[in-house]
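Tutorial, part two.
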Amino acid sequence: MIKAPPTPKGFRDITPELANRRREVIGKIVAVLEEFEFVPIETPTIEFAETLEGKYGEEERLIYKFEDRGGRKLALRYDLTVPLARYVATYNPPLPFRRYQIGQVFRGENPQKGRWREFTQLDFDSVGLTEEKDSTFEEDARIIAAALKAVRNVGLTNAKMAINDRSNFAGIPPEVIRAFDKLKKISIKGVEAEVLKNNYSKADFERFKSMFTLGKKATLTKLFRILTNKYQLKEDRDFLFDPTLARGLDYYTSTIIEMYVPEYDNLSIGGGGRYDNLIGMFGKKDIPAVGFSFGLERLIDSLYP
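Running the prediction step on this input gives:
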C-alpha cells in the first residue's frame, strides 16, 4: 500500500462529517446576520503584501509572504478585516455598510487546541455611523447583539460576551496589559510572574493589579444600556465587564469584545471591537468601524467536544 503524503503542519483535510457540521453552523449564523441587515461580500485570498503590512503590530511576523514570478510581493490574508478596509476605500459603499464574510485565513503560528495555520473566519462588521443619537454605541451594540443571537441559534446557550474599553488602559505599559489579558489562562500567579519578568517590582505588580481591579466600567454605561433596553440582553448572563480584556493593542481604538464558553475551558470562540483608524490607512479619511469574528474551528469544537 502506498503511503499518502501528509499535509503541512497546521493544515488539514475536512471530512464529510465535519464539512456538514460546518455548513450547518454557518447557515444558522448567516440567517441571524441577515436578520440584522448584514450583507455578504468576498475578497481575494491573496493581497499585495504592502496591503497587510503595518496593520497588525507584533503579529505581523505571522503573515505568510511570498513573491510571484513577476517579483511582486504578495501575502495570504491574515484576517478578513484589513481586506474589508481596502474594499471600503476602493468602492466607497453607502454608509453605514454592514457586511459579513466567510473565508480561509492564514497565520504562521504554533498549532494548538482549536488553532490552525489555515482556518475559517466568519466575520461581520459595521462601517460608518447612522444618524441616531449615540450612534457609535448603536453599532457596537448591534454587533454584540448579533453575535450573541447567532451563537444562541447554533446551541451555545451559555456563551458570554466579555466587554472592555481601550481607554481603560491609559497609563499602563503594553507588556503589563498583555500579561493581565492572560489572566483566565495562567491565573493571577502566572500574571505576576510575567510582570516581574519584565523588570517590575512586587510593589509595581500590586499597583497594576489594583488598576485592573478598579477598571472603569463607566466608559461602557451607554453601550450596556442599549444592550439591555433595545436588545433585552442581561448583564452577567449575556455580557459582562472584563477590566483585563485587552485584544489587539495596536489595532482596536475603544470597545473590545470577546466571546467565550465556560464549558470550553473559557477559551475564546470569537472576538472583535472598534477600529476607527484602519480604513483611513487606505482612504483619504478615517471612517469609524466595529466588527466581530467567529473562529469557526473553535466554535465547532465547543459544539462537538
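The chain has a mean pLDDT of 91. In part three we will examine how such features are distributed along the chain.
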